[in-house]
């Protein structure tokens, strides 16, 4: 009872001083990119992150996850408790999304290394949605109500209302492995859009990137606005070589530079999927449907392409040469320079049969990044709404100018 009383008191103080909380620096003055530190919570300083925990999976691997604040407009918790984590932590199949997927996992809240007696573990039975279609996100349902978790002193976190593309200060709180202090760690950095072309395997063009001090096990952890504590994204990939010296000419190698960033995905659009505290994947504005897009011979995909010249000296532009299979009967596609435009319904093609699906149109004539956007549809009458655009698959390449040496050689 003493613990519950303290939780109720801190909750009331948090409501009463909401403005002052948002005005302060939750990173406590730490310099962006500095070494992460383990959080000590014996004095209850970090209760606001008690809803971020360690997700234990049947594979004996672990990820991080965060409890979502899905209370209604009246501030009442009326539904189940939901976690947000990375899709690859739940179901790893590039180009696929699942709904109502059975999961055998558990989440440990209050995961601070200095207070193991306060750790609280709950079962996870279902992934309401898990996707690797242009994003890397999953919504899991905990075997408990949100109200019961709040009463137990576990604090849920809100999604940021909109995605920010400009660079902004963030912090990460996650549960990485490999440390003596087995608990939540805090890291601070700046976050920005990664752009359309990311030369890093398995990263989609709609990601954001940062250089926080993250480690294995941080996948699924939240990136948080440094002042409002709102979730700006969920970590998907941790930098492979962030803490190693740059090899010679790394600054001139996009692949080398890309491997030195962490990547995450915004989840703000998921706010449309919760109705009165209950996740509804087929609700208006949500429509997170199962998707099955399999890339044919993915090992043959090229990240960098360039035009050539034929025997007559004419420039031959490269094509997408993209073969795939799709569970939907039809698909629509378009090409854009900025991957964000994949979620804009304009300029998509008419419906095309998904049988022997093959896109081989010219990539374009302008050098730089180009993105291919593909959406599966069930009929020719199905319109592209904001909801259906949540299921867009993206692929990007970088088009280089025709090599000068090639042009000179062919002109002789």
TrEMBL record:
Source organism superkingdom: Bacteria
Entry-linked Pfam families: Trypsin_2
SUPFAM superfamilies, per database record: Trypsin-like serine proteases
Protein's recorded name: Peptidase
Organism: Pseudomonas frederiksbergensis
